[in-house]
Amino acid sequence: MIPTVSPSRPVDLLRASSDQIRRAAEILAQIADETGPDLETRLARAPVVPTVNPDEMMAARQATIQQAQRSFVAGLRLTQIHDDPTP
């Protein structure tokens, strides 16, 4: 038979796990600060924004719409085949 767990035990386990995760995150942050670039270098980098051609955006949008339409029709056909009582 499985022994019952006291109501406080799951909370204690969760608290211990979150303490371990918090400590691990602190250690990783320290390692990143010690081994990574300095703060000025990290802040000096400008975010890179990819330039997107409007025609490429429209083509990607159309391709996504067509794929969604095909998926919908395929799902509808499968439903009809599944619901059809004749073999």
What are the SSEs and their pairings?
Layout: H1 8-35, H2 39-44, H3 54-83
What do these coordinates show?
With 87 residues, the chain is mainly α. It folds into two domains: 8-44; 52-87. It is built from three helices and no strands. The longest helix has 30 residues, at 54-83. The model has no long low-confidence stretch (mean pLDDT 79).
Amount of beta strand: under 5%
Shape: flat
Query: How many beta-strand segments?
Result: 0
Please compute the radius of gyration using only Cα atoms: 27 Å
Structural key phrases:
87 residues; mainly alpha
Summary of the model, kept short:
The protein has 87 residues and is mainly alpha-helical. It contains 3 helices and no strands. It folds into 2 domains: 8-44; 52-87.
